[in-house]
Design goal:
Layout (H helix, E strand, L loop, with lengths): L7 H13 L21 E5 L2 E4 L4 E4 L14 H11 L10 H13 L5 E5 L2 H16 L3 E5 L16 H5 L10 H4 L2 E4 L4 H10 L3 E6 L15 H11 L3 E5 L11 H6 L5 E4 L10 E5 L1 H4 L18 H14 L3 H24 L4 E5 L2 E5 L8 H5 L3 H13 L2 E2 L8 E2 L6 H19 L1
Parallel strand pairs: 3-13, 5-6, 5-7, 7-8, 8-9
Antiparallel strand pairs: 1-2, 2-3, 4-10, 9-10, 11-12, 12-14
The chain binds pyridoxal-5'-phosphate.
The site of pyridoxal-5'-phosphate (PLP) has 15 residues, from helix 4.
Length: 432
């Protein structure tokens, strides 16, 4: 018999945390505002499982919002990190591990000729935009509604993820002068990109989540990414793929491998650090040569490329480089998709399951979601009840409709069957 679901300890810990941390958390979505109730405090993770402070055990479909593609506390990652730690945490000077990780990144992403490591996805995006503006000597940036590119000032315009959840498309503290050079257009809508290019001649770059994950999982329409490639080339603007989420996720070489598109610049993060804080940007050699110290575009970081973080990345990417891993992950996620798609009509709930590789979202919407406006039309109350119905059954999904689920390689067939059964039962419960 599974133990009854309890949240007493989480409630107690959240009370204490709120006295000392803003909102009791260090990143807004963790506060569970959109699903209600108390945030779950976790004690540990191993393989496919998360265990909370009340002793509840969950199969994890969040994976720390993407990084943990190998599951929790992977043995090979743990071992290399341990060995590295013993030799010191950080030197603020070159170490060979940085080169090793850079070689792995380039192996995965042929569009990347040179790499610069930073410490988060946000930082990688801020840096790459500075470079894009410097290289083109143009100012304006195109992004898409519902895409999240970190919390940099100029990108908090119609941003997804936590910003979407909290209904804060723009944040106070960001002067409109800072966002006046950002155009946010509907995802999957090439015509609006075309008309932006005909209206403005100072567009430096188009930045896109090549598979959108921060408004829930929304795949690019056939021809959308190629269209962006063609329009940017034609207008002497740069194409930036923000693959912080999709890199090493939808394929070893990210969405650019999956869809066969070569961007000028790419940002990476999440899986790249194997659970440690690592981001990176890279791309065409002539562009990267403009970054300091080779060029004048300034960007630096005290802990950038530190050996411990590099070790976690290396031990993670080495296991993924064998592409068999992705075939298995695709089969596993497809198994759940097929089951859920079959179950939905039987439960009487209006929902669609969208998936690309090991990223997915169950939208409480009557039809396929193609952009942010449609995502926002979903029934978030239903998602909230569904979230708790899943938690009580021992499956942890993102505490927001606007976040992707992530399948890890640690999930075996028995776990997938349990996930599927939990989805079916939770949908029935949600229907009532
Ligand atoms: C998570 C994410 C970011 C921000 O990365 P952080 O490490 O949270 O700063 C940027 N872009 C995309 C596409 C992301 O998914």
């Amino acid at each position: 018999m599974p133990k009854p679901f309890k949240t007493d300890q989480s409630q107690k810990q959240f009370q204490i945390a709120q006295e000392h941390l803003v909102g009791g958390v260090n990143s807004p979505v963790r506060a569970f505002k959109s699903v209600g109730g108390t945030p779950i405090f976790f004690a540990r993770g191993k393989g496919p499982y998360l265990i909370d402070v009340d002793g509840n055990r969950y199969l994890d479909l969040v994976g720390s919002w993407g990084p943990l593609i190998l599951g929790h506390a992977d043995t090979a990652v743990l071992n290399l990190v341990r060995r590295t730690l013993r030799k010191g945490f950080t030197f603020g000077a070159p170490s060979t591990l940085e080169t090793q990780l850079a070689i792995l990144v380039k192996k995965a992403f042929p569009s990347i000729e040179k790499v610069r490591f930073v410490s988060s996805g946000t930082e990688s995006v801020l840096s790459v935009l500075r470079l894009a503006r410097a290289a083109t000597r143009k100012k304006r940036i195109i992004k898409f509604d519902g895409c999240y590119h970190g919390h940099g000032d100029s990108l908090l315009v119609a941003a997804g993820s936590g910003a979407a959840t909290l209904g804060l498309p723009d944040s106070p503290g960001v002067p409109e002068e800072f966002t006046s050079l950002t155009l946010s257009l509907p995802y999957n809508d090439l015509a609006s990109v075309e008309s932006a290019f005909s209206k403005y001649n100072d567009i430096a770059a188009v930045i896109v989540e090549p598979v959108a994950g921060n408004m829930g999982l929304v795949p690019p329409k056939q021809g959308f990414l190629q269209g962006l490639r063609d329009l940017t080339s034609k207008n002497q603007a740069l194409l930036i793929f923000d693959e912080v989420m999709t890199g090493f996720r939808v394929a070893f070489g990210g969405a650019q491998e999956l869809y066969g598109i070569k961007p000028d610049l790419t940002t990476l993060g999440k899986i790249l650090g194997g659970g440690m804080p690592v981001g990176a940007y890279g791309g065409r050699g002539d562009l990267m040569a403009q970054v300091a110290p080779e060029g004048p575009v300034y960007q630096a970081g005290t802990l950038s490329g530190n050996p411990v973080a590099m070790a976690a990345g290396i031990a993670t990417l080495k296991q993924l480089a064998d592409r068999v891993f992705y075939r298995q992950l695709e089969e596993n996620a497809a198994f759940v998709e097929e089951g859920v798609t079959r179950a939905i009509p039987k439960t009487g709930v209006s929902a669609v399951f969208q998936r690309v590789g090991s990223m997915a979202t169950l939208f409480f919407c009557p039809r396929a979601v193609k952009n942010y406006a449609q995502a926002k039309d979903c029934n978030r109350k239903k998602y909230a009840s569904f979230f708790w119905a899943m938690a009580r059954r021992g499956v942890y999904i993102p505490p927001s409709q606007f976040e992707a689920w992530f399948f890890s390689g640690a999930l075996a067939k028995e776990h997938l069957k349990k996930i599927l059964k939990s989805i079916e039962d939770s949908l029935k419960e949600t229907a009532g």
